[in-house]
Amino acid sequence: MRLYVIGDSWCVNEWPELLSNELNYKLINDSVNGSSNDWMFRRLIEWVSCQENTDDLFVIVGLTSPHRREENFNNYHPGADGFANEIDKFIYEKLYDNELAHLQSISYILAIQEFLKNKKINYLLYDSWYNILNCEKELISNRKSKSKNKFFNFDTFHFHELHLIEDNIRKGVYYTDELNIGKMIEKIDLNYYLKPADDSIKIQRKNDTGHPNYEDCINMKNRLLRYMK
């Protein structure tokens, strides 16, 4: 059997190897530090589609914050502790829309779910640190208040609120008055989806980086293993 893992920095650590060793699976860890859900979705579809045989495959996708995005085969973080570069700043000021970013990530989750189920591939999706399934109420609230906060208050070390004058932002022609993200979230199969609030993915983050330490990785391995069986 093969274990294919894709995610961000939370998957670039010890737990995938610990998990594969316990299961005696061959590990293919395709994770990249700072990656986006855009990239994970594209890369997962690309990788799986190139496999001649998927009967021996188990896929784990470690999702990340919806604010990250892939452009020109690079991952960008508009809004993370200031701007890392001018492209981050340009994306945030000219292109980023918080509601659209969440709609896109939920669409990726549903598409991955149906893609893997259609191919009869065993899988597990999890949000390592950002619970996107709880976004509907805040998106509705932002619509009502016309909030200038383009990002949610993330419960992490790395993010802060940034502000932009909404008068300079015009919604595109595909923007609708009806917010359907709640209906979309209801279609996610929670038998194969774990969120941070679950006891399954709840770590201490005892180090200074906000990432799992070795003890956390053992904990994640044990709890993911329980859901895989």
Summed up:
The protein is an alpha/beta fold and 229 residues long. It has helices at 15-23, 37-49, 86-95, 98-118, 135-145, 181-185, 214-228; strands at 2-7, 26-29, 57-63, 69-71, 74-76, 122-127, 193-194.
- Work out the helix count: 7
What is the CA–CA distance across the termini? 14 Å
| CATH-defined topology | Rossmann fold
Mean pLDDT: 83
Q: Would you list the SSEs in sequence order as H and E?
A: EHEHEEEHHEHHEH
Strand content: 5-15%
Architecture, CATH level 2? 3-Layer(aba) Sandwich
Low-confidence stretches: 148-169
CATH C-level category = Alpha Beta
Let me know the number of strands. 7
Radius of gyration: 18 Å
Largest sheet: 5 strands, parallel
Structural class: alpha/beta
Shape by Cα distribution: globular
Structure, described:
With 229 residues, this protein is α/β, with parallel strands linked by helices. Helix content is 37%, strand content 14%. Strand 1 (2-7), helix 1 (15-23) and strand 2 form a beta-alpha-beta unit. It has helices at residues 15-23, 37-49, 86-95, 98-118, 135-145, 181-185, 214-228, and strands at residues 2-7, 26-29, 57-63, 69-71, 74-76, 122-127, 193-194. The protein is built from seven helices and seven strands, in the order βαβαβββααβααβα. The chain has a single domain (2-228), classed as 3-Layer(aba) Sandwich (Rossmann fold), CATH 3.40.50. The protein is globular. The longest helix is centred in the middle third of the chain and has 21 residues, at 98-118. The strands form two sheets. Strands 2-1-3-6-7 form a five-stranded parallel beta sheet, sandwiched between helices. Strands 4-5 form a two-stranded antiparallel sheet.
